């Protein structure tokens, strides 16, 4: 793993225990044709493959998921982390401005209608998807389960009369989380016995 130009540690406190987050910031410049490349299958891949694989090559990794999974494993090993994922913030066109899949977040730098001033809110939302939180807007299903703990999505917009849903990171990108989202990402009080 090439030493990142910038890295930092910062603590975050949940109601149940302290966590430490480490991030590597790798500014990469690539020069490829913008998507979509219609010779590639999959709408997301048509927009993503060119710049993503060029960035991975710049970092010394293979193309595709194998490459960014190797990068994630190197980050975990280097920082002795329990979990890691990669986030790309391109200025190239995307199939959708922000999405998370497997161990990868992709967000367009302009951040659609949210703008760059709110990129941290959308990034937090997409990061929670990595850890198992479900969307609470659109076609979500009331009571469906998500995350490692298979917690119910009981703050889905479709569980409530209009205007009565609890505001949450997973429905409005506010910087608070409802109990259901917390449980989906593993913040369940039953898992954290009180200190002696």
Structure description:
This protein is α+β, with helices and mostly antiparallel strands and 196 residues long. The protein is 28% helix and 16% strand. It contains five helices and seven strands; from the N terminus they run E-E-H-H-E-E-E-H-E-E-H-H. The chain has helices at residues 43-59, 64-79, 119-130, 169-172, 179-184, and strands at 6-13, 18-25, 86-88, 98-101, 104-107, 145-146, 151-152. The strands form three sheets. A three-stranded mixed sheet has the order 3-5-4, sandwiched between helices. It is globular and about 45 Å long. Mean pLDDT is 89; it is low at 1-13.
Strand count: 7
For the report, how would you describe the main beta sheet?
Answer: 3 strands, mixed
What's the tally of helices? 5
The ordered string of helix (H) and strand (E) elements is EEHHEEEHEEHH
Beta-strand percentage range:
15-25%
CA radius of gyration is: 18 Å
In spatial order, strands of the major sheet run 3-5-4
Strand pairing plus helix content: what structural class?
alpha+beta
The dominant shape is globular
**What's the mean pLDDT score?**
89
Q: How much helix, percentage-wise, in residues?
A: 25-40%
Q: What is the oligomer described by this structure?
A: single chain
Distance between the termini: 40 Å
């Amino acid at each position: 793993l090439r030493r990142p130009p910038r890295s930092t540690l910062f603590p975050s406190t949940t109601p149940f225990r302290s966590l430490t987050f480490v991030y590597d910031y790798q500014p990469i410049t690539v020069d490829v044709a913008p998507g979509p490349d219609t010779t590639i299958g999959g709408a997301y891949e048509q927009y993503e493959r060119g710049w993503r694989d060029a960035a991975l090559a710049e970092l010394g990794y293979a193309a595709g998921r194998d490459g960014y999974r190797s990068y994630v494993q190197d980050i975990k090993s280097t920082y002795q982390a329990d979990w890691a994922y990669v986030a790309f913030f391109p200025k190239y066109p995307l199939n959708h401005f922000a999405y998370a899949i497997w161990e990868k977040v992709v967000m367009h730098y302009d951040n659609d209608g949210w703008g760059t001033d709110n990129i941290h809110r959308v990034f937090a939302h997409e990061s929670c998807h990595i850890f198992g939180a479900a969307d609470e807007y659109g076609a979500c299903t009331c009571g469906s389960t998500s995350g490692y703990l298979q917690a119910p999505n009981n703050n889905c917009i479709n569980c409530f009369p209009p205007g009565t849903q609890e505001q949450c990171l997973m429905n409005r990108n506010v910087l608070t989380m409802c109990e259901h989202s917390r449980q989906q990402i593993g913040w369940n009080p039953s898992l954290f016995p009180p200190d002696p």
